[in-house]
Amino acid sequence: MSKETSNNPPTPPPLRPGGAHRLRGPVVKPKNFKGTLKRLWHYFGNERKMLALIFFFIVIDAGLMLLAPFLIGKAVDAMSLNPNGVQFHLLEIFIIVLICAYAADAVLTFLQGWLMAGVAGRVVKRLRDALFTKLQKMPVSFFDSRTHGELMSRLSNDIDNVSNTISQSTTQLMSGVMVIAGSLIMMLIISPVLTLASLITVPLVFLLTRTIAKRTSVLFKNQQVELGKLNGHIEETISGIEVVKAFNHEDMVIDEFNTVNSKLREVGLKAQIWSGFLMPIMNVINNLGFAIVAVIGGILAVKSLITVGAIASFITYSRQFVRPLNDLANIFNILQSGVAGAERVFEIIDEQEEPKDRPEAIALENPKGHVVFENVSFGYRPDVLILKNVSFEADIGSSTALVGPTGAGKTTIVNLLTRFYDVTEGRILLDDRDIREYTRDSLRKCFGFVLQDTYLFTGTIKENIKYGNPEASDREVEQAAKMANADGFIKRLPNQYETILSENGGNLSQGQRQLLAIARVILARPALLILDEATSSIDTRTELHIQEALLTLMAERTSFIIAHRLNTIRDADAIMVIDHGKIIEKGSHDVLMDKQGRYYHMFFNQFKNVERALDE
């Protein structure tokens, strides 16, 4: 539900073409790396048993990979140590075992990837479920200060990064640690001297990784933030494309897109360049290490302190030792991106939800619709009050119209009544009980909304009407459509009630969408009704049909009507003129016209031309 222009929450972002808000402000400081990983671990749940099985496969696979260099060394010695020539029978055995080891490694690697993909999918599903569930529990003020595209980015891009991190990095991390430890042990067994020589480069590797990781951590975080802004801009521009074209702002939104896209390119380019430095420099360091090992190994071989086969095994072990170090460095870059995504997800999950119901709150059953405002004051910001000491009473089944300039506080009144926000001072009574004593779910179930901007979901017409009451039968759906004067145009459609609607009912007219919204509310059978500019964008002929439907809907229901077209509220039981958060006039249409006050002048100014034409 929209708020008046002056009723924005704290530090509101500016409006852009398309009608949505664009997120502005400083980048939120990321949480610590270890803390985020620890928190992400809780989402694995029962998957830890599967991780244990994967770890078992990794241990076997690591053992096979450690066996291979040993067999290679023995095969080389079988060809070089025997004075009588090559020992073919031993060579054949070593080659066959080596082939089997590599074949088993391929099978185990496939199993690890397959099982880990399943684990990643289930973990990410839990994370996405948690985030989507959290969004349903957030207050309206939360969505007022964020773009839809930015939130969608967290549900899609950020969680996809987490998925890629889990599926690609977990097995490599566990396997890498096993292979590094095993290779180091075998290297020490073969030659402590060569091991010491090869380890000279290890501090360089860790220093390089640490230096680059510090830089890429910030850059990948900023990259995700900029991507969210870009998605937000795209979403709001496409959603408001008609407004963009109507004001000839195509060039402006293109310039804005290019600005945001360029910022994303700059941050992303820096992140990729810094992460790209890692592997080339690592290769230089590794090649330097192999050169040192080759030189020292050659000297030891000449002195008969080590065999050629042992040198071959050592070099292979050395490669197996260094390669996981390279992989771990690359994995760390992937982790940076994944953790950045997880942090952004957890930022939403950590947001404060709607205040919980009071422990003694009760469910609202069989509401009658008697509403009382007692000295209600409220502000979206503590220092700026929108409503100031507002008091009024709406009897059961009565209709109360709220009129006044934009930003006066009309929509704020219904936002408070439905507890989208809670009052700052005073109280609101429904059926002689403070609405805060009811559970929110039961309170909101007793309201029906017909808004100026009707929203229809992608699906059939029947499904959209049944949104008001999913348990309703097809007959009840058609009856509600007839009461809303919607059955006629529905029956003229090719597939009638099974007609598929595009996004937000784009293949229907505004009036037809409003009639479906009214049918949806009729099917819900609410005790109280809120009409927020329900006919403001409808042509006169369609308005007559909608007015008939609204009269049917309002029958015997307590109704609150926000309207700028004063002819639509002439029959309201009470009309309240609101200005600067106060009720300055109240009464029926005839009473207020007799007073010749603010309402009289509003009505006269709006209809003086029509009345002059009628007199003529």
CATH class of the largest domain: Mainly Alpha
CATH third-tier fold name of the largest domain? ABC transporter transmembrane region fold
| CATH homology superfamily of the largest domain | ABC transporter type 1, transmembrane domain
Q: Give the structural class.
A: alpha/beta
* Count of β-strands: 12
CATH architecture of the largest domain: Up-down Bundle
Q: Radius of gyration in whole Å, from Cα?
A: 35 Å
User: Main beta sheet, described?
Assistant: 6 strands, mixed
Task: Give the uncertain stretches in residue-range form.
Answer: 1-30, 609-616
Provide the number of structural domains: 3
Distance between the termini: 42 Å
Short descriptors:
disordered C terminus, 4-stranded antiparallel beta sheet, elongated, 3 domains, ABC transporter transmembrane region fold, 61% helix, 6-stranded mixed beta sheet, disordered N terminus, alpha/beta
Summarize the structure.
The chain has helices spanning 33-41, 47-80, 88-136, 140-144, 148-190, 192-198, 202-239, 241-246, 250-302, 308-349, 410-417, 440-445, 461-465, 474-483, 487-492, 510-524, 540-554, 589-595, 598-615; strands spanning 371-378, 387-394, 399-403, 425-430, 433-434, 447-451, 459-460, 500-501, 528-532, 558-562, 574-579, 582-587.
